Amino acid sequence: MPEVVIIAGEASGDLHAAGVAEELKRIRPDLKLTGFGGPLMERAGVELFDRYETGVMGFVEIIVHIPRHYFLLQSLRGRFERKEVALVIVIDYPGFNMKAAAAASAAGIPVLYYVTPQVWAWGENRLPKLAKIVTKAAVILPFEESLLRGHGIDATFVGHPLLDRATDMPTKKEARAALGLSDSVPVLALFPGSRQQEIDRHIDDFVESARQTQKAVPDLEVIVSVAPTIELDPSRCPYRLVHSASFTVLRAADAALCKSGTTTLEAAIADTPLVVAYRTSDISYLLAKLMVTIPHIGLVNVVAGREVAIEFVQHDLSPAKVSVELERLLDMSDPERKRVLDGLAEVRAKLGTPGAARRVAEMASALAQ
User: pLDDT for 254-281, tens place per residue?
Assistant: First the structure.
């Protein structure tokens, strides 16, 4: 039975991998799926030989993972050298997955990279290596296909996997009913991050931004969207937490304050105007400033190619400034709200169509012989 190894190093990769695994099970029941990942992959039928720990962000923070990554990579090399693996699928997590892909390629195993490194942000120095070690790339942002193909990488735009999750989004009325919110009150959603360290850095500024906005917007309800494992001290966050229901929260909200990243694209898909904010350690920020080659960090703005959602980054993240922008987005007659909504419509049109997991599975099936 041909074996396909799937490697995902954090929760988002686990989610994407699970979708691909489910489709592979359907179209190629003859394949044995093994991997490094999490509970969603396991539930989808992947036999896990190791599990990821909670993902980390930043240059300094990732150092703690180096020893574990070293031993996992050695284990993978042994597995690849036994010549029992027909295909390796690596998903995002480039710090480790570039090394895993290189090990598979050196062993003569085809490699499919799904959700490729963000070379458009960090410079193109990784592209020559990517071209040497990747058999096929499945990219999720529209401009990535031509960029990678221009460097000799067989890349295909498969659409953004968020679209698969959004096919059954509730209406605003349904979302508010599900969350017990009145149809008549304005609602602000806070998305401080998916990882504890992100939340610790953001929550005070996000909460203070909401408090200042409440002073200006009568009857404003505030809800906070967090991952299932996150709990917050009520002294730091007096607002209601909603776990694992990001699209429902966004559909219920009239505006959102979002940490930069995938959540900004979720807001675009949900048609919820947003402000983008981000803070990291000073060292990580300074290093990023030296390396990042694009003018915006919010993915919604990266896809648009311009600032659709206003960004407040690092020391510019000021609750007084943020609340002013949120007030404008919560005002249904303000031209700024319409400007942002028009930009979000453009972003949605660029994200492709649902079915990314199926397309990736079909690519994998063709490679796994």
Answer: 999 999 989 999 999 999 999 999 998 8
Amino acid at 327: E
| Residue 58 confidence class, pLDDT cut points 50, 70, 90 | very low
User: Is the separation of the CB atoms in 367 and 112 below 8 Å?
Assistant: yes
Give the integer Cα–Cα distance in Å for 169 and 36: 30
* CA 57/CA 62 separation, integer angstroms: 6
Q: Computed from CA positions of residues 46, 47, 49, 51, in that sequence, does the dihedral angle turn out positive or negative? A: positive
Q: Is residue 346 helix, strand or coil?
A: helix
Q: What is the pLDDT of residue 64?
A: 54
Q: How far apart are CA 244 and CA 229, in angstroms?
A: 9
Query: Which superfamily does 3-161+354-367 belong to?
Result: Glycogen Phosphorylase B; (3.40.50.2000)
Q: Tell me what pLDDT residue 290 has.
A: 67
Output the pLDDT for position 276. 98
**C-alpha of 20 from chain center:** 16
Task: Kindly list the domain boundaries of the chain, sorted by start residue.
Answer: 3-161+354-367, 168-350
Extract the tokens encoding 64.
Answer: 């703690």
SS3 call for 28? coil
Fold of domain 168-350? Rossmann fold (3.40.50)
Tokens 């597995």 found at = 79
Flag whether the pTM goes above 0.85.
yes
